[in-house]
Amino acid sequence: MRKDQNTEGEKPADDAFRHQRRNVYALYVIALLLLFSLFGWFLKEQREQEIASAEAQSDARASLIGEWVESIFSQTYHVLVSVADLQNMPDVVSATQMSRMLSDRHRYAPPVQRVGLLDSQGIMIASSGDNHYQGADFSHQDFYKVLNDPDYPMEDIVTPLYWSSEEQTYSLIHALRLTDSSGAFAGMASARVASQAFADMVNQMQIRQGESIALVDATLTLIARNPGDERTQTGGQVEGATIQRVLDNGQTPWSDVLWSSLDQRERIFWIQRVGNYPIWVVVGMNLDEVLAGWRQRAGITIGIFIVITLLGAWGVRHYLKRIRLAQLLQHRLKELDQARTQAQTGEARLRTLINSIQDLIIVFDQNNQITYTHALDEGMLLKGKDSLLGKHYNEVIPAGLSKRLDTVFEQVRQHRQAVTLEYQLRVPRGEYFFQAVVSPLVHPDGHFSGTLLVARDITEAKRSEAELNIAAAAFQAHLGIIIADAEGKILKANPMFTQITGYSEAEVIGRDAKMFNSNRHDSGFYRRLWRSVKQHGRWEGEVWNQRKNGDIFPEWVVISSIRNADQQLTHYVATVADISERKAAEQEIHQLAFYDSVTGLANRRLFMDRLGAALKEVHRHRSYGALLLIGIDHFKQVNDVFGHPIGDRLLQGVARLLHQQLRESDTLARLGGDEFAILIQSLDTDAAKAAQLAELIAHKLMVAIRRTSSLIEHSVSVTASIGITLLDYSTNEQNEYLQQADMALFQAKARGRDTLCFF
C-alpha cells in the first residue's frame, strides 16, 4: 500500500522532469542557433568590412588617377587656349611660320604629340611639327561634328582612344571650339594626346599583390593598365556586359565583384569616371587576396563554435542530472508543507481580513457610547482602544467637533441615511484631516441599534489640493507650459504657450507633442531626449519646433516626468521659452567674426584656426599639405576704372569658381583685398609628389580664374599669381608658413604675374 502511494507521488515528478528536460533541450538548441547566428553575423560583418576596406582603397587610388588624368587635360586645355589666339593671325603669316608657332605652344606640354588649327570648314590650316596635315579635311570626324553643333553645351571635347595608321600610335584628340567676335563657329584647335602619357602615369602607381589599375574609354578600349602584359596592351578590348552597362548609364562611382576577362580572376572592381571626359578608371583587387585573412578567421571561428557546442552538450547532461535529484527532494518537502499549510490557512485568512482594513472604525450604541474600535495605528486615536470603550464621544473629542457630531448623529437617527463630514483633529501622531462616513445600524426588524463611523485620513489629499492651487497660480507664468499624460497626449496648455506656438488650447488638447516637430532633428535626437527623461526624470536643451503658421523657431525646453507615490509615471510637464532673438544675435555675431562680408568665405581668423588644426594633422600622419596664396593681378586698376561694385563682383566670381575646383576637405578663405588663401591637407607622404600635385592644382585654379572675366560684363582679362609653400612636419608656426607663401606670391608677381612660384 505504501509502495503504491510512493509510486503515485513520483509520477507527477517524472512528468515534470520530462517537461523540464524538453525545455532544457529546446533552450540548448535555441542557444546554439543564436550563437550560430551571432558567429554568422560576425563573419558576414567581417567579410563586408574587408570588402568595404578594399573599396575605400580603390576609391582613393581611382581619385588620385583621376586627378592626374584631369591635370593632363588641364595642360592640353591650356595649350588649346593659347592656340586659339592664332586664329586671328594676319594672312601674310606663312604656313611654316604658323607651324613653328604651334610647335612653340606645346613645347612645355609633354603629353601633347601634335597641335593643329582648323577653319570653320574643317580644313587644317596648320599643324605643329612638319605641318604634315596642312590642308587635310577633318569635317567628317566625329569631334568636328560635335563641336560644330550649336546645341553642344561644352566648348571642348575629348574623343575615345584613336589609332593613327600613319603614325602607328594610339592617342586621344582634345579639341576646343573657336568662335568669332559675333559668337559664330570659326573653327577649332585640336591637340593629339599620346596614350603613352597615360600608360606612364598608371605605371608609376605602386600596386599590391593581386591589384590592377586600368584606364578605359567609352567603348571599353584599354588605354593603359598596370600590371601590363601582351593581353593588356593599349588598344585592347575589355569584355564585360556589366561594365558596359555601368559606363552607358553613367553610374559612377560603381563597385561590385566580377570575373575579369583579362587575367581570369574574380575581382572587386571599382569604376569611376574622370570628370566629364570619356575616360573611366577601373581599379581591380583580387578577391582571394582581399579575403585571405577573413577565411583564416572564419576557420578559427568555426572551430570555436564546435568546441562550445560540445561543452554545452556536456553541461546540459550534467544539469539535467541535478534537476532530477532536486525535483525528487522537492516532492518530499512539498508533502510536508501541504499538511502545515492547511492548519494555518483558517487563522491566516481571518487575520488578513482584519488587517486589510486601513480606515478607522468606531461603533456606537443607541446612547452614542463606544462599543468597538479598529485602527491599524493606535496613534490615530485620541486614547488607547481599551480606554475608549464605554465612553460617550463628548467625553473624548473637543467641544467644537462634539457639537457637529450631535447634529450628524441626530440626522442619521431620524433619516436612517449615511452622512459624510470632514474634520480636523489633533491626535498623538499630529494634526490630521479626516473624512468620515456616519451610517445607521439597523436590525432586520427596523429597530435602530446604533451608529457606525468609518473615518479615513485625507491629510495628504488636502496637502495635494493646496499644492495644486499653488501650481495653478504658477501655470500662468511668463514661460510656456504644457502638461501631458503618460502616453504623451497634451492635457493642458497655458496662455503663454499658445502665444508662442500660435495654437489655441483647444487645438492642442488630446494631440501628441509631435505636432510641433520641425524635422530639424533626427530620430536619434528624440531617442536620447526621452532616454534622459526616463533615466533622470528630466531633460533640458534646445529644440527647433514649428509654429501654427509654419515658421521654424528655436526654443529652450525643460521636460520633467511626474510620478506618484508608487513611482508610477503619471504626467509630463514641459516649460518652453522662445529663444529666436537670441539665436539670431548669436548667428550674426558668428558670421561677422569668422566670415568675409563680400565673398562669404572664411576670413583670416577662421583660416588661421584651420591652419593650426591642419598642422597638427600633418604632424600626426607625417604627410605633406600645401598652402596657396592667390593674388588677383592688377585688381586695384579694376577698382579704379570700373568702381568697387565691379571689383566686389569680380571677387565673388573668383571665390565661386575657386570653390568649385576644390574638395570638401580643402579650406578657401579671403585674407583681405585681392588675396585668397587655400589650405590643402594630406596631398602625399612624399614631398616631390605632394609638390607635383600642388602645382597641378594651382594650374587648374589659374585656368578657372581666367574664366572670371565673363562674369563682370566688361572686357577685362583676369589673371592671378600664386605663391605655394608645402606644409611638412617641421616645427614651423602658422605665421611662418603664411610668410613663406606671401614671399612666394611676391616672387610670382615679380616674374611678370599670371604664374606661380614655390617657396
Structure in a nutshell:
The chain has 759 residues and is of the alpha+beta class.
N- and C-termini, Cα separation: 111 Å
Q: What would you call the structural class?
A: alpha+beta
If you average the pLDDT, what whole number results?
81
Estimated radius of gyration:
45 Å
Note poorly predicted spans.
none
Helix content: 40-55%
Which shape, going by the Cα principal axes? Answer: elongated
Number of helices: 19
Largest sheet: 6 strands, antiparallel
What is the strand content? 25-35%
Number of strands: 26
How would you describe the overall organization of this protein?
With 759 residues, the chain is an alpha+beta fold. Helix content is 45%, strand content 25%. The chain is built from 19 helices and 26 strands. Strands 1, 2, 3, 4, 5 and 6 form a 6-stranded antiparallel beta sheet that branches. Strands 8-7-11-10-9 form a 5-stranded antiparallel beta sheet, with helices on both faces. Helix 1 packs across helix 7 and helix 1 packs across helix 18. The model has no long low-confidence stretch (mean pLDDT 81).
